[in-house]
Amino acid sequence: MAATVLVPPAHCHHRATAATTSRRGGGGGAISHCALSHARRRRGSRAVRAAAPPEQSSVSLAGASGHGSAGDAKAALRQALEGVDRGIFGTTSAQRSEVHRLVELLEARNPTPEPTAELREKVDGCWKLIYSTISILGKKRTKLGLRDFISLGDFLQIIDVKEEKAVNVIKFSARALKILSGKLTVEASYSVTSKTRVDIKLESSTITPEQLMNIFQKNYDMLLAIFNPEGWLEITYVDETLRIGRDDKENIFVLERAHPSEV
């Protein structure tokens, strides 16, 4: 997956360098040089004066070159995810490129290089999905009623390291005579296979209450295929509040810490 890196055009760099030289050169030579350049290229000096504010350029360069801290990248990622609705119903090309650029920046700064050795300290507990490349689009979204009739709520994950279990809870609400709330619960077991990877096996799945199951009955296999976690998962970033993973289907998952009461 290629990351999009925004770098200012070369001429902007040259102008910024010239401006810096002018400011730092306290001696007469630097002043004479600037004056000579002004006399010979009046139009060029006007272009230098019209350059963009330096603050915006420096922030872009810091992000593009990877010099920002992990905290800055996390804040930028959360900002980039505003209004994206976890990516489940698609994103624009620009949104996707920016999110994936920040994901890769964080992965390069992973503070936990051997996450499966620290599952109890770093992974155990409750998490909420804030971004995924899994998408429900087109006819699939229509068949599942996820356009107008059914709303997709929070996607929560409970990791029990002691039991080597993972439970995914996907919340739904359906508009009928009244709002009907329910959830799809997918239970899985896992086993550690490397310093960064676990294998996941689907154990069971249920939809509650029964009325919601009746709504999804016809397309239940399709729904389960979307949220089936079976396969392997690589933990590419994890700290106290954020976790990123990639699976064998080339999906990306970004989750943040959540309180168990949200389940």
UniProtKB/TrEMBL annotation:
Plastid lipid-associated protein/fibrillin conserved domain residues: 72-255
Low complexity biased stretches: 47-64
Keyword Signal applies: no
Compartmental location: Plastid
Pfam family for this entry, one: PAP_fibrillin
Keywords: Plastid, Transit peptide
InterPro entries: PAP, PAP/fibrillin_dom
Highest taxon in the source lineage: Eukaryota
Region (Disordered): 42-66
One cellular component (GO) term of this entry: plastid
Protein name: Plastid lipid-associated protein/fibrillin conserved domain-containing protein
Organism of provenance: Panicum virgatum
Organism taxonomic ancestry: Eukaryota, Viridiplantae, Streptophyta, Embryophyta, Tracheophyta
